[in-house]
Design a protein that fits this description.
elongated, 35% helix, four-stranded mixed beta sheet, six-stranded parallel beta sheet, alpha/beta
């Protein structure tokens, strides 16, 4: 008797067939991929691939409806030292419905088991269905995609470092001091993260092989485009901040004061006779309020400026050259 769940999976094209017994009829059952063991014959099989080709990296992908031959039990590896075939099949078990025609491996749990008659009856229930493509193979990556993601990550790091170089002296953007350390931590995490994951799952695989498989997962769809979109967003962040804000240096004469933007919270406080560097949104109208009650204001529109502020004289003047000094008080 056919299971409703099995029929539903077949009609949705989510079926993968694992044959350890030969089928009498043609491959009429819509399966994303057929897996055969030993010398099991499938009438009408045309796109035949082998487990050895998968393990050696000769296969970049498995076409929908392809036949994958697994010659020996050793091709599956073990849970601690999985082969690419087993890692790929674990992904199949998680994301597809598998019909085992004949017997199934001892380490596989769940799914469905039956004989050739069950496969023939199921084919009648799924007539006209188009099978979904099988999950992508592990550690089979596009070199162009890998190099592209690496270059994009380098551009992101460079833009944030440029932002740090331009704005690190500001008093009101203390968080920007975290950028060099944050980039270093991200690089260390990217380098050591796969090793930690290998230790967590207890896999007994060489580090080079594990890094290759991790890279393969992060450059495939949909992770690859998603990661690229995140990196593009991270690259636009410092560009937007640099365009939206400018770096202003202020020298408040004779008395300390508070610098604020009209209609918003104060940017920071400056001491008397000491240079004060603040990040100021532009364009904006700056307001200076001295400790003794003097005030003045000016428009800040440029990319940066050095300004002398004398709130007692209500004077806010831009610094033009190194030879120019602020007017004497009084």
């Amino acid at each position: 008797m056919l299971s409703d769940e099995l029929v539903h999976a077949a009609r949705r094209g989510r079926l993968v067939v694992f044959c350890s017994e030969p089928l009498a009829g043609p491959l009429s059952l819509p399966a994303g991929v057929w897996i055969v063991t030993g010398r099991t014959l499938l009438p009408g099989a045309v796109r035949v691939r082998t487990a050895a080709q998968l393990e050696e990296g000769q296969l970049r992908r498995l076409e929908t409806g392809a036949v994958l031959e697994v010659g020996e039990e050793a091709a599956w590896g073990t849970a601690r030292r999985p082969t690419r075939l087993r890692e790929w099949f674990d992904e199949v078990l998680r994301n597809r419905t598998v019909l085992f025609v004949g017997s199934r491996p001892d380490w596989v749990e769940g799914h469905f088991t039956g004989g050739p008659e069950l496969a023939e009856a199921l084919a009648e229930q799924a007539t006209g269905t188009r099978a979904l493509a099988p999950p992508p193979l592990p550690a089979v990556t596009s070199r162009a995609a890998a190099w592209g993601l690496a270059a994009l990550a380098a551009v992101v790091a460079g833009l944030w470092l440029l932002l740090y170089t331009a704005f690190s002296g500001a008093q009101n953007w203390r968080w920007i001091q975290l950028i060099p350390g944050g980039l270093t931590a991200a690089a260390v995490l990217a380098a050591l993260g796969p090793l930690g994951a290998r230790a967590a799952v207890g896999a007994d695989l060489p580090a080079r092989e594990w890094y290759a498989r991790t890279l393969g997962r992060w450059t495939r769809w949909p992770r690859g485009p998603a990661l690229a979109a995140v990196l593009v967003g991270l690259a636009l962040g410092p560009c937007w901040l640099a365009r939206r804000n400018g770096r202003g240096s202020f020298l408040l004469l004779y008395e300390p004061g508070v610098v604020s933007v009209e209609g918003s919270a104060p940017l920071g406080a400056c001491r008397a006779e000491e240079p004060c560097t603040l990040i100021v949104p532009r364009p904006s109208h700056l307001h200076f309020e001295g400790a003794e009650g003097g005030v003045c204001g000016l428009d800040f529109t440029g990319s940066g400026a050095v300004l002398f502020i004398d709130t007692q004289q209500e004077g806010c003047e831009p610094f033009v050259s190194d030879d120019e000094m602020p007017p004497p008080r009084g």
